[in-house]
Amino acid sequence: MEQYIGLDVSMKETAVSIRQGGKRIWRGKCASDPQLLSAMIRKRAPEAKRVVFETGPLSVWFYHALTAEGMPAICIDARHAKAALDMAANKTDANDADGLAHLAEIGFYREVRVKGFDSMLIRTLVTARRQLLKMRLQMSNQIRGLMKTFGLIVPKGAGSVFDRNVRTLLQGEVGLGRIVLPMLQAWGDIRLRVAELSKHLVAMAGADQRCRLLTSVPGVGTVTATAFAAAVEDPANFKNSRAVGAWVGLTTRRFQSGEVDHDGHISRRGDNKLRSLLYEAAAVILNRSTETSTLRTWALALKERLGFKRAAVALARKLAVIMHAMLKTGELFDPHAGAPAAA
């Protein structure tokens, strides 16, 4: 008879629950090691049908490691699982594992696509670079703020200009220099690390045909193209191109109950970083791009009618649809696509 396993994964230990024939037949704990878990499952549930666990920090590693061990691993949406797990009287790891095993048995879950390690490596690179950029900005702002207290206003400028301005103002300020110069050195080190990761990202994008294809879209640079290609992976993962906009969280929420029926803000589901990058690309098209295209003409008309923010969101959603279609067809961006035929 088939068995169904629920795993509540944590950093050190994983709670395990096994069900068969509508009843729990065993539950316990095991170290959070896919090999040890696989050995335990083979011993306790030799006819395992589904091994279910929620999305989380370890889910990518767990999924691929369990699959490599021959386990029928299934990763489910944690938000979907939460609604069912909250029905338990007490919130414990054991009860969560029981709930996941029950969901696995009745098939009431929403399976999510787990990215491959190559895609996660690209995503990690984009995330690390973004974090260092944020740290660099925070450090420079902190330096400006500290010097402003002593009447030293750092002029506008970035990179080597900022470094030169700070050192010039600190001449003769021995006490303050002992405090600020180490911070400036740290800022410079972060700047070098950002340059290294940027160079690595550009090289990675240049070697990827998908990224070279996506950068033909106005406003879409190396970072956005790389992040989008890594997130989508295979265009066949989506039923159609329109589904990508909803997947990234750029479609509006809808609330309907009785006579009440209205739309709200965008859902903000999915990849936050990718959604931000698409919004930034849309802002570039609306404010900085000079290339004439049907897409920009449509977006500018929308901006006049609805305002910048709504137009940027709509354009970001349209960009997601267009970029997926490009990956699917392998064609470069056509700036005149969708234009009415000449008479």
TrEMBL record:
- Give every Transposase IS116/IS110/IS902 C-terminal domain span: 211-289
InterPro entries in UniProt: Transp_IS110-like_N, Transpos_IS110, Transposase_20
Q: What is the lineage of its organism?
A: Bacteria, Pseudomonadati, Pseudomonadota, Alphaproteobacteria, Sphingomonadales
Give the matching NCBIfam families.
transpos_IS110
User: GO molecular-function annotation terms?
Assistant: DNA binding; transposase activity
Q: Which organism is it from?
A: Sphingomonas populi
Q: Which GO terms describe its biological process?
A: DNA transposition
Pfam families on file? DEDD_Tnp_IS110, Transposase_20
Question: Domain Transposase IS110-like N-terminal, which positions?
Answer: 5-149
What the entry lists under PANTHER family is as follows:
PUTATIVE TRANSPOSASE FOR IS117-RELATED, TRANSPOSASE FOR INSERTION SEQUENCE ELEMENT IS1111A
- This chain belongs to the protein called IS110 family transposase
